[in-house]
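ligand=4'-deoxy-4'-aminopyridoxal-5'-phosphate
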Amino acid sequence: MATKLQRPDYAYMGGKIIPWDDAVLHIGCEAITRGLNVFEGIKGYWDIHGNFGIVFLQKHYNRLLRSARLLHIPCPWTYDEYKDAILQLMGRMLSKERDMWARTSLYVVEGHWGEGTKADLIITAYHQDKVMPDPIDIGISTWQRATDSALPARIKTSTNYQVGRLARMEGKPRNCSDMILLNNQGRVAEATGSCVLMVRDGVVYTPPASEGALESITLAFIENLAKSLGIPFVRRPIDRTEVLIADELAICGTLAELVPIASIDGLPMNANGPLLTSIRDRFFKVVRGQESDPFFETTLVPKEYIKNA
Ligand code: PMP
């Protein structure tokens, strides 16, 4: 599941596409000294009709603005400017064989302690194989998701990922490719870069964002898919012991998509459970354009933006 670090040819920075090697930030800016940024991880898929579409772009822009507002980072880019920037970069880099994902970030490049804060919109994009993710083994970390009054999970900022990094490193010797972070009450918050789905007695559960999870765009999509399949979907707090005795478990997110869990803390799980398998099948049919869904949104990269595909 881990995305290998790629070294693409281009990045978007300072209002234009530039060579990757030129995309550098000064060591003196708050993006570096305080890790001050907000970002979105965004996915694009080739559909069966030969179109490449970026999913839920408006929702990602809206969440980027909410994160920026919470950290008092002004975002002068309109949705249309933001959209055009990512379409340009993905169009330049697209190839027919592979999907892509992008990171759209506002890095704080000017200002000091909240005075004169200015950000640059910086976009990097990466290729991704067109495959359904395999089931993974996970564990429960001793590292915790911070509280809303410490480092709010609702803000999608890089500093929030330091605990996720520690959790993944903790999981490595236990052969876990991802880890669940609990909140300070010992209940399930989320995984390091995705949300948790749990099935018990025919109902899909996920913790509400107030338990320490990002307000996930994929989760809203999956909630909708579940309901359209007649599968009950409930947001409520989840105890640690519940995930250990669940009928089915998965993680979901823009990049993770929907990954079944094969074991948790060494306890085997049914990675082919009926509920999450049917949601997963529907998920991939919708993103590939094999089935339509009223909730699903995709922004096609215009043909004239595509250079090599
Ligand atoms: N939690 C965290 C910590 C994440 O990084 C992500 C991925 N953005 C998610 C949850 C899932 O959010 P989304 O479905 O909007 O990608």
